[in-house]
Amino acid sequence: MASYYYLISSLPDLKSDGEMPVSYSEFLDMCKGQVSKDKYRLLENLTFSSKKGPLVEEWARVYDPVMEELNYQRNVKLGKPCQAPAKRTPEVTQRVNAILGAKNPLQAEKMMLAFEFQLLDELVGLHMFDDYVLFGYAIKLKLMERQQCFDHDKGQKEFRRLMDIVRQRVYAL
């Protein structure tokens, strides 16, 4: 594994409850010339469904069961028939249950991001200045990027719009 002393030490800290200090494209610009072409290509094409790359394979093994549990619990709450995930753990089941019990969807997303950061930190462990740290950082940025799509004010506005439609239909009955 390559070492990236300067690159990793120059990356701003990422906190699940903080702002995104750099965009993913800025991160890629920082990596250009510092990582091999193969690693850069993996970073450039990184998605939530990626399975190749340092740490990415391990992340998929941890992340996929969390997403399966999340989908399962959502379906159960909606009364949809579904089969329980094959790889259930008490910790994941409990955390997902708490996340789905949040007071609003934005709070649930924040709780989910904190849980995902915790899982990534556990995977990275004691690695320092190597591919695991670099790819862990990249995944965290992708997670933060996804969360930035959620805008509280837009969500409230859309909620009010939908509620007005429901009220109009109820009154029409």
If helices are DSSP runs of H or I spanning 4 or more residues, what is the number of helices? 8
Overall tally of structural domains: 1
Q: Whole-number average pLDDT?
A: 91
Main sheet properties: none
Helix content, binned percent? 55-70%
- Which parts are unreliable, with pLDDT below 50 for 5 consecutive residues or more? none
Order of helices and strands: HHHHHHHH
Q: What global shape is seen?
A: globular
Q: How many strands in all?
A: 0
Radius of gyration: 19 Å
Strand content: under 5%
C-alpha end-to-end distance = 67 Å
* Overall SS class: mainly alpha
Describe this structure as you would to a colleague:
This protein is mostly helical and 173 residues long. It has one domain (5-172). It is built from 8 helices and no strands. Helix 4 crosses helix 5 (90-100) and helix 5 (90-100) packs antiparallel against helix 6. The chain is globular. The model has no long low-confidence stretch (mean pLDDT 91).
Write the layout of secondary structure elements.
Blueprint: H1 5-10, H2 24-31, H3 37-44, H4 56-77, H5 90-100, H6 105-124, H7 131-147, H8 152-172
Tags for this model:
mainly alpha; 173 residues
Quick rundown:
The chain is mainly alpha-helical and 173 residues long. Helix content is 65%, strand content 0%.
